[in-house]
Amino acid sequence: MSLPPLFDRLRLPVIGSPLFIISGPDLVIAQCKAGIVGSFPALNARPQALLDEWLHQITEELSAWNRANPDRPAAPFAVNQIVHRSNDRLEADLATCAKWQVPIIITSLGAREDLNTAVHGWGGITLHDIIDDRFARKAIEKGADGLIAVAAGAGGHAGRLSPFALIQEIRQWFNGPLALSGSIASGDAVLAAQAMGADLAYIGSAFIATEEANAQPAYKESIVASKAADIVYSNLFTGVHGNYLRSSIEAAGLDPDNLPEGDLSTMNFGGNAGAKAWRDIWGSGQGIGVIDHVGTVAELVDRIAGEYRAAAARLAPVIAA
Length: 321
Description:
This protein is of the alpha/beta class. Helices cover 38% and strands 15% of the residues. It has a single domain (9-215, 287-320), classed as Aldolase class I (TIM Barrel, Alpha-Beta Barrel). Helix 1 runs parallel beside helix 11, helix 2 packs parallel to helix 3 and helix 7 crosses helix 11. The longest helix has 24 residues, at 297-320.
C-alpha cells in the first residue's frame, strides 16, 4: 500500500473530514498547518461565489506558511463535492476547484467518471466515500483514486458495517489509498486503523469541539458532554442514515427513540427546506467520549500525535515478541 506523494507532508496519517456548515477556511487552514489534511464541503461556501474567495484564502495562507516554515510544510487540503442530483451547484463548484487546482476532491453520494477525469486533468486526486464493498468497486471502476470507508459509528451519513469487515473486504482487491471513518478520535484509534489495513484515519466529530470550527457554542459543549450512547442513528433528516446527537433531537421537540422513517425525497443540500434540520439537528460520531474540552486544532492534533506515538511504542515489543 502506498500513498501519492502529496501525502508525504502529513505529520499524522489523518484527514480532517468535511463537516457540513462547520468546516470553513479557519478550520481547514489550522488543520493543514497542524500537519493533517483539512477539508470542507463546497456547499458550505454560500453563495457559490464565496467558494472562490475561500479557495483563494486557503491557498494564499498555506503558501505563506510554507515559505515561513520550510521544515514544516502544511499538509494538502481537500474539497468535498456532493454528487447527488439534488446538488445543482456541482458544475460551478468543480469549475472553481479547477481554477485553484484543489489537490484533493472528496466525492460523496454518487460516483462520476467525468468528474474524476476532470480532477485528474488539473493534477488532483479523488477520494470517494463508500459504506460497503459494492459501492467501493463502483467508485474505482469510475476512476476514483482512493476510497474512504465510512463504517458504523461515523458522524453524519454513516454505514452499518464494522470497520474490520469493511476494510478487509476492500483490501482483498484494492491496494490504493484507503481511509477509514468511524469513531476515530484518538491516536490509538489512528494506529488501529492502519493496523487493520487503512492508510489514513478520517476524523470529523472531534474537530467540532475546536475554537476554529464554525459551530454554535452549545453544539461544541454538547460534543464535550456526550458519549457514544448519546448518538442516534436515523434517516429522518436527509433520507440517508446518519448519526446525530440525542440532545439536539430532543431540543427540536422530537423523541430520539421513536423517530419516523425518512426517504430520499427529504434529501436537500441546497439550503432551503433542509436547512433548518441541518442547523438544529447536530451530527456526531460515536468516538466523542474522549473529547473533554473545547480547544484549538493544534492542541487536538498534538494530543492525537502523542497518543499515536505512545501506542506505537507500547505495541512495538509485543509485535517483536
